[in-house]
Specification:
With about 325 residues, this protein is α+β, with helices and mostly antiparallel strands. The protein contains twelve helices and four strands; from the N terminus they run ααααααααααβαββαβ. It is about 60% helix and about 10% strand.
C-alpha cells in the first residue's frame, strides 16, 4: 500500500508516480460529487445565485423555466445546469487550449466531465434538504467549498471562471483572484434582477427587500465556500520542520529518507555546555507525515531531543511548486 508521501512526492519511482496521478484523478472525480449535491439539493431548490459558472448556469436555469417543456420535461422545461455547464466549459477549454496550452486543460477536462456527470445523475429536489435559506446558504456553501478544496488539492479544477481567469492572466498581468472576484460580484448581483421564486414571495413584504435578500443569500454562500476552500487548502498544505538531536543521527536520517521518502540535511553543531560536536537532523515533511517521523525517532532513539515548528509554506522539490507572484 502506498504511503501518503508516495502520493504527494513528485520524485517517486515511475510506478509510484503513476499511482499518485491515478489517486489525484480519483479525488477529482469523486471529490467533485458533493458540489453537485449542494447545487441540486440546496442551491437550485432555494433559487440561490452563487458565483462562478455555476451561478451563470443557475441563472439560465431560472430564466428558461417552462420555455422548453418538450425538450427538458424532467426539469420543468428549463435548460438544465449540466447541459449549460458542459457547453460553456467546452467553449472555454477550446479557447484555453489554443491560447494557454492543452497541457493545462487535461485535468480540467476530467473535472468538467465529472461535474457534468454528477449534475446529470443527481436529481434536483423540489424541496431543499435544508429548509432555512440562511442555513442552506452557509452549510451548502461550506460543503461546496470543501469539495472544491479537495479537487484543487489534487491539482484539478471544475472549470468555469478558473479557465477565464487563466486565459485573461495569460495576456494581462492581473491577479487571478481579482479576476474571479470580479466575475463573482457581477454574477451574484444579477440575482437582483431575476423574477422572485414562489418560495420567496411573502405576503406584505416589499419586493425590493426580497431581491436584496436573494443577493445576500448568494453572498453568504460565496463567503462560506471561499472560507472552506482556504481552510482545507491550508490544512492539506501545512508542513512541519523537524530539528532532531541524537547520537544515532545516521540511523534516524536513513530511516526518514527511505521510509518517509523525504530529503534530510545533517547540520554540524557544538554543545555549549559539553563543548562537544553534535549532529543535528533537519527535515521538512507534510503535516500528515509528522507522526511517521515521530515513530521512527521513538523506535531508534527514544531519548532524542526533538524540536518541531509549523511552516506556513514550503516550495520546491517534493512540496508545492514555486510560483512567481
Amino acid at each position: 500500500m502506498l504511503r501518503y508521501s508516495q502520493l504527494v512526492n513528485p520524485h517517486n519511482t515511475p510506478q509510484e508516480s503513476r499511482a499518485r496521478v491515478l489517486f489525484e484523478y480519483l479525488v477529482i472525480i469523486i471529490g467533485i460529487a458533493p458540489m453537485a449535491l449542494m447545487v441540486n439539493w440546496v442551491l437550485l431548490p432555494h433559487a440561490f445565485v452563487g458565483g462562478g459558472l455555476t451561478g451563470i448556469c443557475s441563472v439560465i436555469y431560472y430564466i428558461t423555466g417552462g420555455f422548453f417543456p418538450s425538450l427538458f420535461p424532467e426539469y420543468g422545461g428549463a435548460v438544465p445546469v449540466w447541459l449549460t455547464t458542459f457547453v460553456f466549459n467546452a467553449i472555454l477549454l477550446l479557447v484555453a487550449g489554443l491560447t494557454v496550452g492543452w497541457r493545462f486543460c487535461i485535468r480540467t477536462m476530467v473535472g468538467v466531465a465529472a461535474i457534468t456527470f454528477w449534475y446529470r445523475v443527481i436529481p434536483i429536489l423540489q424541496e431543499p434538504i435544508i429548509d432555512d435559506p440562511w442555513l442552506g446558504a452557509i452549510i451548502g456553501g461550506f460543503v461546496f467549498g470543501l469539495s472544491l478544496g479537495c479537487v484543487l488539492a489534487a491539482n484539478g479544477s471544475s472549470g468555469g471562471t478558473d479557465i477565464v481567469a487563466m486565459i485573461v492572466n495569460h495576456y494581462h498581468n492581473i491577479s487571478l483572484g481579482n479576476i474571479m472576484l470580479a466575475c463573482d460580484v457581477v454574477i451574484i448581483a444579477s440575482a437582483f434582477f431575476l423574477p422572485l421564486p414562489a418560495s420567496m414571495l411573502e405576503e406584505g413584504t416589499n419586493p425590493t427587500y426580497l431581491h436584496i435578500k436573494r443577493v445576500l443569500y448568494g453572498v453568504a454562500m460565496t463567503i462560506s465556500y471561499t472560507l472552506a476552500v482556504d481552510w482545507i487548502m491550508s490544512r492539506l498544505h501545512r508542513s512541519v520542520h523537524f530539528l532532531i538531536y541524537s547520537s544515532k543521527y545516521e540511523e534516524i536520517a536513513t530511516a526518514i529518507n527511505t521510509t518517509v521518502n523525504r530529503g534530510v540535511t545533517i547540520l554540524d553543531g557544538t554543545g555549549w555546555y559539553s563543548k562537544k560536536p553534535v549532529k543535528v537532523i533537519s527535515v521538512l515533511v507534510r503535516k500528515p507525515e509528522s507522526s511517521l517521523v515521530f515513530r521512527i525517532i521513538h523506535d531508534i532513539d527514544p531519548s532524542a531531543l526533538v524540536s518541531i515548528a509549523d511552516v506556513r509554506g514550503v516550495f520546491g522539490s517534493g512540496f508545492d511548486k514555486i510560483k512567481a507572484k
